Amino acid sequence: MIWRLAAAIVVIGLAGCSRGAPAAKAPEPSAPVAQAPTTPTAYSPAVSPTLKAVRQRGYVACGVHPGLPGFAFPDARGRWRGFDVDICRAIAAAVLGDAEKVRFTTTDAQDRFSALRDGRIDVLSRNTSWTFARDAGLGLDFAAVTYFDGQGFLAPKSLQLTSAEELSGARICVQSGTSSEENLAEFFRARGLRYRAVVAPTEDEVRQLYESQACDAFTADISALAAARSTMGSPNAQVILPDVISKEPLGPVVRQGDPTWTDIVRWTVYATILAEELGLNAKTVEQARETASDPETRRFLGLEGELGPLLGLSNDWAYQVVRQVGAYHEIFQRGVGQDSPLKLERGLNALWTAPKPGLMYAPPMR
Fold this sequence. Notes:
By secondary structure, this protein is an alpha/beta fold. Helix content is 36%, strand content 15%. The chain has helices spanning 2-20, 49-57, 83-96, 112-117, 132-137, 179-190, 203-211, 222-231, 259-277, 285-291, 295-300, 317-324, 328-335; strands spanning 60-64, 73-74, 80-81, 102-106, 123-124, 140-142, 147-149, 151-156, 170-175, 195-200, 217-221, 238-240, 248-250, 253-255. The N and C termini lie far apart (88 Å). This is Amino acid ABC transporter substrate-binding protein. Belongs to the bacterial solute-binding protein 3 family.
């Protein structure tokens, strides 16, 4: 009993000491230690298998339309010309320093994507619309928009139409296997209108059907309609109706899984747009290398900074693009603009800084 009583006294005594003892004081926070600024780890771009293959073979393999006036067509001497063709040449100038090191492979609407996936071409530059399903579902990447387009309708002036909604019950010519065919069905279904599709596998065959009056109207991207009209026997007897029934952002397509190559194609397009913003063109860019003083122009021309190596390219890659192919406005003008039979207005394809602003806007090169 005595030892139990002694133990109880000790416990009571300890409890009393615990209640009466001041709380332990928290340690004073130490003053923050100044740290020297860290230098970002140097970055080396992933080796692009496509770029490596292009350099080994000595040319860019580019998929183009078999013959679309203004965009891709062989001239009387067999030389490929057009807006999409110039995008291919710009890529060759950027990666090989020579815009002529391109081989063109014609692709139709049905095999254009398989040609890219199978490695028969390095880039597809063929009036191809950027859509969700194509971007996310085909194993492909759309690098940039080179031409903002939309689907419309071509009809004889003699019908005196003012809107596509007046085409209820009409026969409409459209190319099979294209987004134009789907857009046409959605346009008429949404308005509760009837129509009869007259389909053919190629744009040339669709145009021939229209010219033979096998249909009342022809639907496609407006740029393609302008191209088709320019080849007809009586182009002035045809009118493009004011309706634009879809968004069709067109641009070059590459395979997924090679991000450095995607960046090269993307920034080649942006280089043409930036050149126009900076007031550069094929005739003035060489002199600009001697006189340019503002930092952005000097970076663009490869006189300052080390931007080219981030893409695995030389520092003067953008300079070569403009010197050999031109700025965006030059490519547009001779391909589809006022210096071409199509004579398309810049419209949405004007610079964002133009008096009539368009959508052409490139990220800064810095």
